[in-house]
Amino acid sequence: MRSRRELLQIFAAGTGLAAIPGAARAQSEPLEPTPSCGATGATTPTATAGPYFRPGSPERTDVTEGRASGTPILIGGRVLDRDCRPLRRALVDLWQADEDGRYDTTGTYLRGHQYTDGDGRWAFATIVPAPYTFRSMHIHFRVQRPGGDVLTTQVFFPGDPSHDRDRQFDPRLLLALSRADATRVGRFDFVLA
Ligand SMILES: [Fe+2]
């Protein structure tokens, strides 16, 4: 298992994934970059929490609980303010469906939270979620700077054919997908007011 430190290095600010040996853009995906904090001054769009949020998730980096099922992926990025300044000690809380499109509604599988480091970085080791009824592939997040309002949102996967049937899909919330060696990597920077 990768340490939190190793995971954060993969998403290290300023290096970009191209600097990681073996990293390459996913093929055939004409990716829109994650909307940047400086480009529009806009904050990350919100999305509904849905019915599956549960408070009290464990603080951790790896939310797979050692299960071998599903396709591993590292999801990470930074939490920034509108002026592109990293926000440290921001809460990032993740919950998502498994490879069959199901949520763990009694335990903590594929649920977890952590706090950004001094460069605003966060990263989780998780699996690729499956789409489920009327929903495309997505991962839920609650993000909160110290003392700030909670941003509730979701991130989506480029190239997922089920976007069309998902009324909640928002192209501004697409992950930037790539690979670090054999590992799938999805990057997203949250921008808070
Ligand atoms: Fe969901």
Automatic annotation (TrEMBL):
Keywords: Dioxygenase, Oxidoreductase. Residues 34-51 have a biased composition (Low complexity). CDD domains: intradiol_dioxygenase (cd00421). Residues 50-164 form the Intradiol ring-cleavage dioxygenases domain. InterPro entries: Intradiol_dOase_C (IPR000627), Intradiol_dOase_core (IPR015889), Intradiol_RC_Dioxygenase (IPR050770), TAT_signal (IPR006311). One of its GO terms (molecular function) is ferric iron binding. The keyword Oxidoreductase applies. Residues 23-71 are annotated as: Disordered. Belongs to the intradiol ring-cleavage dioxygenase family. This is Intradiol ring-cleavage dioxygenase.
